[in-house]
Amino acid sequence: MKDFNNILDLVDEVQDLVERQVAGMRRVRANELGLDPRCGSAYVDDSMEAIVVDAGNARGFDYYGGFEYVDDADKRTLGDYVVYLNTSDRVQDALECLMEEDGICESEAE
């Protein structure tokens, strides 16, 4: 790991790593996740382990998407993003909705 001279160098390096990781993720609209379109858009990783939202857009996901009920243990703030983990039922439901839309899985209700 790099030797950082100060905390600002470390913050910049972490933000750069996060930006590069998010840039490689799939961008989806909220309705693809079964959420209110007013939430906006988010990113999902290929393994469907998390929903990543721009920190400025997280309030919309909290309010319109019901993510305010996601426990603190199931979300992280990472750089300019909020990461909602699939360890939360609410996040799992949204990811399953996307997988159904993609034809990866079928709803249990069917």
Set down the secondary structure blueprint:
Layout: H1 7-23, E1 26-29, E2 41-44, E3 50-54, H2 58-65, E4 75-78, E5 81-85, H3 89-102
What class, by secondary structure content?
alpha+beta
Number of domains: 1
According to DSSP, the number of beta strands is 5
Q: Order of strands in the sheet with the most strands? A: 1-2-3-5-4
DSSP summary: helix tally: 3
Strand content: 15-25%
Sheet of most strands: 5 strands, antiparallel
Gap between N and C termini, in Å? Answer: 50 Å
Low-confidence stretches: none
What is the structure about, briefly put?
The chain has 110 residues and is of the alpha+beta class. The protein is 35% helix and 20% strand.
Verbal overview:
- With 110 residues, the chain is an alpha+beta fold.
- It has one domain.
- Helices cover 35% and strands 20% of the residues.
- It has three helices and five strands.
- The chain has helices spanning 7-23, 58-65, 89-102, and strands at residues 26-29, 41-44, 50-54, 75-78, 81-85.
- It has a five-stranded antiparallel β-sheet with strand order 1-2-3-5-4.
- The longest helix has 17 residues, at 7-23.
- It is globular, with a radius of gyration of 15 Å.
- The termini are far apart.
